[in-house]
Write a structure and sequence with these properties.
The complex is a heterodimer.
Chain A lengths: L4 H26 L13 E11 L2 E10 L2 E5 L1 H7 L2 E4 L6 E5 L2 E5 L5 E4 L2 E4 L5 E3 L2 E5 H12 L2 E5 L4 E5 L5 E3 L1 E7 L2 E8 L5 E6 L2 E6 L3 E3 L12 E6 L3 E6 L3 E8 L3 E9 L13 H4 L5 E6 L16 H20 L2 E4 L9 H10 L4 E8 L9 E6 L5 H10 L21 H7 L2 H18 L4 E7 L2 H4 L5 E8 L3 H7 L2 H24 L9
Parallel strand pairs in A: 1-12, 13-18, 23-24, 23-25, 25-28, 26-27
Antiparallel strand pairs in A: 1-2, 2-3, 3-10, 4-5, 5-6, 6-7, 7-8, 9-10, 11-12, 14-15, 15-22, 16-17, 17-20, 19-20, 21-22, 26-28
Helix pairs in contact in A: 5-12, 9-12
Chain B lengths: L1 H27 L11 H4 L14 E11 L5 E11 L2 H14 L14 E8 L4 E8 L10 H18 L5 E6 L27
Parallel strand pairs in B: 4-5
Antiparallel strand pairs in B: 1-2, 3-4
Helix pairs in contact in B: 3-4
Classes of the chains: A alpha+beta, B alpha+beta.
């Protein structure tokens, strides 16, 4: 052994802890939910068949117990309470759709995702005898939150009863504000109500489930270009929107608020082949987080004339933010606006906190060769999962750059918490990378180095389409000189704006937008 | 006379016995009054079960080292390696050779000369832990992503291409597993072969 003894003493416990985590993560991730028997790492202390009681009628369902608690079969519950259960495109996860809400769960992983929200369950779902078993906590967070029901487990008789809790009277406060083309409607309650949102053209209804609303004394007064009326009854809150408007909802805690962002929908482009998933096509790009690479002690690459990557990326990012706001009417957030140290994980976390719809990390490259030139755009590679990424891309029916060939070993497919977040957006990330590269090739006299995949840390945590753009080689004298001129940087920025504009249009309408579209 | 001889004999026996006792006592007393020096047996925890025991016999073999090249790809270069015959020793030998070899143009060195192999472990599941050290302790070289990828995967690909038992590589820098070396590639988890970086 080559290390000194004190180093060994420090190193071994760390190594073993890391390896334990790795191995448990890997075992969990390698389980195929459709084929496996028992999810790795789950030690059953008991199992059998129970009865699911809903409105007095019984349905058999499998259950199992572990040291962490009870697991019950999900499929019969979906059959009785409604919803849809599907195996995910990567065959690593399941999606549970209940009304408008879609939850992603992974056997062996305690991570539960809903849109961009990720929560940790106290116990991971598991595959037992080919059936998906989930903890009661997951049922409460899904069906409980959506239908206002609770679940009671009678261990002695092996009966799971779906219970409707007593009704609550919840006072409501309504707030409404219109800023920068978006109307925000805030419905505030003293406690989280049980509700679901029902959408129909021009109307969004919040239907209370077992609870009742106490309407505000004077009723909400509405004078707004996008929201025509808000009607409140004890059973529901109805938002009537202006023509061609749509809304997205999300919740805030302490106190509980249900928020609707209402905006004018982008007119649909001419019919064309769909290139992005249908789910994505319903989304809007309103917030873009721009990440100037490096900063503080991390200078990034240094050019022959002494230019630091961190300085030029900051200049590029600031101009890009301004131009995106001016051109596309989006909100932009810079991960850093000064020369400061900022951890990579904090950058993607900032994007998640801001509920960003896109994440662009701006970098300049360096080469060991002297004459390297050109731009390249990266999206995340989960390594060895490239085939799975390709499968996902194929499932989602989109056209883009080729994906690197797969390795035979699935070791790296750990589906750790944040990997899972970005893996949901790989197809869109690849599409964005392709558009950026196309525009750079078309507009600028740059060598096309293509769209690439790499396990870049800054992309891993992003729960939205995310790319890293290398806009040129600062290590090459000529490119460094060009990058130092504001005119050339402005050209690069305009190209990026055009690419993001294309992506935004395609993302929001679901129709292909060809290169060069202004 | 007889009594006199007997007296001498008894006296001599007592002296010999005392001398032997004194010598015995001295020989049992520790030479230094300080704490016993640490030995491997004292300082090491019980050997971790995941470690592959190193083999002893030395061998000379030809390794295929992957070095960064001016075309931003990894180019192979053959070099002799002397190592013990076990997989761990082969992996250590090949990394040491990669760091020490004189590159043939257009190849360039992977790291500056002060970067050496500190420690290398091979775990039973095929994970190789490579600890790169600098003397004096220094931060990893700053670079753009292309250069960083070539540096990292020069080590990763060289190990994985030359040691059959190796399946993945964990990189440490001065004993610490960092999120990245230069702000791009995630070194916080095991790394696998990147064939796309190798010159075809």
């Amino acid at each position: 052994m080559l290390l000194s003894q004190p180093v060994k003493l420090r190193l071994f416990p760390r190594l073993f802890a890391s390896l334990l985590l790795l191995v448990s993560g890997v075992l969990a991730a390698q389980e195929d939910p459709a084929e496996g028997d028992v999810a790795a790492g789950v030690v059953l202390t008991g199992s059998g068949t129970a009865n699911l009681m809903v409105s007095g009628a019984a349905t058999p369902l499998a259950f199992a117990t572990t040291a962490a608690g009870l697991l019950v079969e999900l499929e019969p519950i979906v059959g009785r309470l409604g919803g849809r259960l599907d195996v995910g495109p990567l065959r690593q996860s399941y999606s549970l759709a209940i009304g408008e809400t879609q939850l992603i769960l992974v056997p062996g992983s305690p991570a539960l995702t809903s849109g961009t929200e990720i929560e940790a369950l106290s116990q991971a779902p598991a595959i037992v005898d080919g059936r998906l078993l989930v903890p009661l906590e997951l049922l409460e967070r899904s069906y409980g939150a959506q239908l206002g029901v609770t679940f009671a487990w009678d261990e002695a008789h092996a009966v799971l009863t779906v219970v409707r809790p007593p009704q609550r009277e919840l006072p409501l406060e309504v707030g409404l504000v219109h800023l920068q083309g978006v109307t925000t409607v805030v419905l505030q309650f003293p406690d989280a109500p049980r509700y679901r949102v029902v959408r129909s053209p021009g109307v969004y209804e919040v239907v209370l489930l077992g609870d009742r609303v106490v309407p505000p004394p004077l009723g909400p007064k509405v004078e707004d270009p996008w929201v025509r009326a808000i009607e409140v009854t004890p059973e529901r809150i109805r938002l009537e929107l202006a023509p061609d408007c749509a809304a997205e909802s999300y919740t805030l805690k302490t106190p509980f608020r249900l928020v609707f962002d209402v905006f004018k929908e982008t007119p649909a482009a001419a019919p064309a082949a769909p290139v992005l998933p249908r789910d994505s096509a319903r989304r809007a790009v309103r917030t873009i987080v721009i990440d100037p690479g490096h900063g503080g002690k991390e200078t990034g690459a240094i050019g022959p004339a002494g230019s630091a990557e961190k300085e030029l990326t900051l200049l590029l990012a600031k101009t890009l933010a301004t131009r995106l706001e001016q051109t596309l009417s989006v909100r932009t957030v810079l991960t850093r606006s000064d020369d400061v140290d900022l951890a990579l994980d904090e950058r993607s976390a900032l994007a998640n906190q801001n509920k960003a719809d896109l994440f662009l990390s701006i970098h300049l490259n360096s080469s060991v060769g002297r004459g390297a030139v050109g731009a390249e755009t990266y999206f995340l590679s989960l390594q060895a999962s490239d085939q799975r990424a390709a499968d996902a891309a194929a499932v989602e029916n989109y056209v883009g750059a080729a994906v690197a060939p797969a390795g035979s070993d699935d070791f790296e497919l750990q589906l750790l918490l944040w990997d899972l977040a970005q893996s949901q957006h790989l197809a869109a990330s690849q599409r964005l990378a392709t558009m950026i590269q196309e525009e750079l090739n078309r507009d600028l006299d740059l060598r096309d180095r293509g769209v690439k995949q790499a396990p870049f840390r800054v992309l891993m945590g992003a729960a939205m389409p995310a790319v890293l753009v290398e806009l040129g080689f600062i290590s090459t004298k000529e490119e460094e000189q060009r990058l130092r001129t504001p005119e050339y940087r402005a050209q690069l920025v305009e190209t990026l704006v055009r690419a993001v504009g294309r992506f935004k249009l395609e993302y929001e309408t679901g129709s292909a937008v060809p290169a060069g579209t202004p | 006379m007889k009594r006199s001889w007997a007296g001498w004999a008894i006296g001599l026996a007592v002296v010999v016995a005392l001398a032997a006792g004194f010598w015995l006592l001295r020989s049992r007393r520790p030479a230094e009054p300080s704490v016993e020096p640490l030995t491997a047996a004292h300082s090491l925890p019980s050997p971790p079960p995941a470690l592959v025991p190193p083999a002893a016999a030395e061998e000379t073999w030809t390794a295929r080292l992957f070095l960064p090249a001016a075309n931003d790809l990894l180019l192979p270069q053959e070099a002799p390696v002397v190592s013990a015959s076990g997989a761990r020793a082969r992996a250590a030998g090949v990394v040491a050779a990669l760091l020490a070899v004189a590159p043939v143009a257009p190849r360039v060195p992977v790291f500056p000369p002060e970067v050496k192999l500190g420690k290398l472990l091979l775990l039973e599941d095929g994970t190789v832990i490579v600890d790169l050290r600098t003397d004096p302790v220094a931060e990893p070289p700053q670079s753009g992503s292309t250069e960083e990828q070539l540096r990292i995967y020069a080590v990763v690909n060289t190990v994985l291409r030359n040691v059959e038992e190796a399946k993945r590589v964990v990189l440490l820098w001065n004993g610490v597993q960092r999120p990245t070396l230069a702000g791009h590639v995630d070194t916080g988890r095991p790394l696998r072969l990147r064939t796309d970086l190798e010159a075809s």
